[in-house]
TrEMBL record:
SUPFAM superfamilies: Acyl-CoA N-acyltransferases (Nat) (SSF55729)
Domain N-acetyltransferase span(s) in chain numbering: 21-163
Name of the protein in its database record: GNAT family N-acetyltransferase
Pfam families: Acetyltransf_3 (PF13302)
Length: 184
């Protein structure tokens, strides 16, 4: 069973019983404002059921719950792209606002990066961050991701065009990284 300890809590697979805390923590406009529109808002019990059903019981899950005191309070995960982008993994994450600013994602992102490069045939991990999301950008920079590009006004959120910032860490960079976040 996959399980990565954090200073507070752990990363572990999603499981039945997470639905209630998932709704409680995910149903937040301040989270939704920084993620894709497919992330539901309002976040209903039905959304939680379908998320847990589709993410539990994989041998090597793509999504891991951020667990604090037994409660699922966030997610970190990735999707592998297809066609000529099939060696790319897009990483994404969210955390309950109750726990923002405590270094949880700063700790979780290198763990997930290790997990991906050690278990999946991927050559590039990238993240897309909406304009103004300074917290997410600093988490990525601290995990040694490089700020590669700004896709000007590429996204629309709340009827506003927003720049999208692209961050990436190549496998070759990951292998050579010397940073305490990666234990090297
Ligand atoms: C982005 C997010 C995952 C960061 O998680 P976190 O565990 O709070 O991150 P950390 O505490 O490790 O570090 C966050 C950094 O942002 C800062 N920060 C935290 N909350 C902030 C806020 N509301 N506004 C501005 N900065 C904030 C922290 O101080 C820290 O920066 P610093 O150490 O350089 O001062 C979390 O804020 C979140 O879930 N946001 C909504 C969803 C989202 O943006 N997902 C990512 C999409 S790319």
């Amino acid at each position: 069973m996959i399980n990565f300890p954090l200073s507070i809590g752990q990363l572990r697979p999603w499981r039945e019983g997470d639905e209630e805390s998932l709704v409680r923590h995910a149903n937040n406009r301040n989270i939704w404002n920084n993620v894709r529109d497919f992330f539901p808002y309002p976040y209903t019990p039905r959304d939680a059921t379908s998320w847990v059903r589709s993410n539990k019981s994989y041998q090597q899950p793509n999504n891991l719950a951020i667990d604090i005191d037994g409660q699922a309070v966030g997610n970190i995960g990735f999707t592998v792209k297809d066609d000529i982008y099939r060696y790319n993994a897009e990483i994404g994450y969210w955390l309950s606002e109750d726990f923002w600013g405590r270094g949880i994602l700063t700790e979780a992102l290198p763990i997930m990066t290790n997990y991906i490069y050690q278990n999946f045939q991927v050559n590039r991990i990238f993240a897309c961050v909406l304009e103004g999301n300074i917290g997410s950008m600093s988490v990525l920079e601290r995990a040694c991701y490089r700020h590669e590009a700004i896709h000007r006004k590429a996204a629309i959120k709340n009827n506003q065009y927003l720049d999208e910032h692209i961050f990436a860490l190549l496998r070759s960079e990951y292998e050579n990284v010397t940073h305490s976040a990666y234990g090297r």
